[in-house]
Amino acid sequence: MDLTRISALDPWSWTVPRAAGESRHDVKLYGSHELLETMDDKVLEQITNVARLPGLVGAAMTMPDAHWGYGFPIGGVAAFDAERGGIVSAGGVGFDISCGIRCLRTDLTLPDIMPRLKPLADNLYRDIPAGVGVGGHIRLDVPELDRVLAGGAAWAVEQGYGEAEDLEFVEEKGRARGAVPANVSALAKKRQLGEMGTLGSGNHYLEVQWVERILDAEAARAFGLFEGQILISIHCGSRGLGHQIGTEYLVSLAKAAGRLGITLPDRELACAPINSAEGQDYLGAMNAATNCALANRQILAQLTRRVFAHHFPKHRLETLFDVSHNTCKAEWHVVEGKRRLLHVHRKGATRAFGPGHPDLPERYREAGQPVIIGGSMGTGSYILAGTAESEVRAFSSASHGAGRSMSRHAALKRWQGRALLKDLETRGVLVRTRSMRGAAEEAPGAYKDVERVAEATERAGLARRVAVLRPKVCVKG
Amino acid sequence: MPYFEHDADIGVVGRGATLEQAFVAGAEAVFSLITRIEDVRLRESVEVQFEEADPELAFVTWINQLLGHAHENGLVLGKFELEREGDHWRGRARGEPWRDEMERGVGVKGATLTMLSVAQTDGGWEARCVVDV
Fold first, then answer.
1. pTM (two decimals)
2. Burial of A179 (0-12, 13-18, 19+ CB in 10 A)
3. What share of chain A is helix, strand, coil (3-state, %, to 5)?
4. Residue B32 sits in which domain range?
5. Which of A251, A211, A240, A241 minimizes the C-alpha distance to A227?
6. ipTM score of the complex?
7. Could you say which residues from 36 to 75 on chain B have a Cβ atom under 8 Å away from some Cβ of chain A?
């Protein structure tokens, strides 16, 4: 990124000065000088365009893991007020609606699992459907899928996938309000009939991780974390259904914007006023896709439990938290002393409610919301806790991952899948995948340094670091 | 190479003597991300039809309908045909269900409006956009 175009507000946040006569909201970029320097100029261009959208409240923001997306940058956060002409944007949510991470906590330790690591990896690979063209073990009909779209993770629990107490630790208690299955096209539904309980491909994964270090003992206690502990993170989303909704509404909202008199700085910011029929149609479909994603991760959590129960029958896997990072959620926020209902877009950014937030489960209410920064398969991940400061700085939002620093094409030129997997194995990480191309594209070196992203997230006041996780097994989509 | 750089996703390019041929080449580029299309047996087919006056949105719709129907039917596609009459587009794609021995690349979620362009060039037509993977 051309740093001459931005000004530092402090060492961890930056703004883009307006040109003379330029009319737009503020832009805020969170991150270190070093992280921003490696970002593409497109990030700046895209977030500046977001700052021109109608009804924006506060600044258009990027998180420290931001990179170039479509319309919105990935790592983009923007809140809109429906009562002031605010919009909802399909590009501001992304194609993989409600993609997120389910984190499971065990009472197992690293020495417990090491003797069985290889069979554990092989069994997870066998039982967790992953990769392009790999369907699930569940086949639904359309009426049943409609119940998934209305019920979310609660539907999955009713079907025997998990326990009722899981729902306490899923955003919105596992069921997004406002889902309208009728707003989801027949093709989107058909794509999903055989896809429930599948991981998908690309950057999706299931990782068995261990807690290398606790950085905040009090929050770790609340989250039930200790050093040496085994955790499992499942990263995936709303699968074919979400992708189809995303593609259909991207085009229909691009057309609607012109019809509704919205001047788009870029067509890829396709959007409609929240209070328009088009905006409401999208929100109904998007919430249905959110429920699909929540149910999908609930099923995958239960499939994971079954594999662990085979190897470690005396140990339980509990849900630590489930947080989505491609969303538009209606939330109450205090802006200039007034409580307002805002539609907060987080495209590749996670919600990060601070201590005391009424939507948090009681167990976490003092510590703040668990925030998960997923790393790449060879490095590590972080668990953080939401802060009160994040509410003021970013509508309670934080980073969601390491963020790519290199294109897939460049990664393919640099790494070879089989050699990479062998190298990771020598470093103690067992990777299981059907796609060598996918492995090369997802090479750890193609991502930003997760340590730097987590540090910047904390220093910028977006969330505070609680625990460092290292991978032992990665089932890659 | 029928691809261009994007940080997180992949840009695809289709070139051809006609607009329809450029769109077909774009589809080949997309499905080549998913598998080696040369290895796909042409055993089943899917039909695609839509109305679209805007050539750029038509390119995105063409790719997304192919991805949607391939996914719906559990197929991987390798051969594409497209005709246009005014704003009406009618296409056909052939392929087969996934086989274990097929190379698995990356899943393509959809074609985006990012860096979307359909333009005449010296040699014919070029269609391009970023696909989300």
1. 0.95
2. buried
3. 40, 30, 35
4. 3-132
5. A211
6. 0.88
7. 57, 60-61, 64, 67-69, 71-72, 74
**Does residue B130 surpass a pLDDT of 70?**
yes
Closest by CA position to A35, among listed A447, A329, A373, A477: A447
Expressed as residue numbers, the domain containing A328 is 3-405+447-476
Nearest to B76 among A133, A244, A409 (CB): A133
Rounded to 5 degrees, what are φ and ψ at A442? -100, 20
Residues A208, A473 contacting (CB under 8 angstroms): yes
Residues 124-183 of A with CB under 8 A from B: 131-135
Tell me how many domains chain A contains: 1
Does residue A92 sit in helix, strand or coil? coil
Looking at residue B36, what is its pLDDT? Answer: 94
Is A67 in the active site?
no
Q: Find the CATH number of the domain harbouring A75.
A: 3.90.1860.10
List the single best residue of A39, A41, A132 to mutate versus B (max B Cβ within 10 A). Answer: A132
Residue A303 lies in a domain: yes
Q: Which of B68, B102, B106 sits opposite A441 (nearest CB)?
A: B106
CATH of the domain at B36: 3.55.10.10
Which residue of B lies nearest to A251 if distances are taken between CA atoms? B57
Helix (H/G/I), strand (E/B), else coil: A88: strand
Mean local confidence (pLDDT), A128-144: 93
A274 located within any domain: yes
Look up residue B101 and give its two tokens: 């021995």
Domain count, chain B: 1
Is residue A378, in this structure, part of any structural domain at all? yes
Q: What are phi and psi of A380, to 5 degrees?
A: -175, 175
**A276 CA: distance to closest CA in chain B (Å):** 22
Scanning A78-141, the segments in alpha helix (DSSP H) are: 110-113, 117-127
The residue of chain A with its CA nearest to that of B64 is A247
A207 is a domain residue = yes
The model's pLDDT over A269-299, given as tens digits with 9 standing for 90+, comes to: 999 999 999 999 999 999 999 999 999 999 9
Given the residues A67, A243, A343, A400, the one annotated as active site: A400
Taking the CA of residue A125 and the nearest CA in chain B, the distance in Å comes to: 15
Q: Count of alpha carbons within 13 Å of A318, Cβ hemisphere only? A: 12
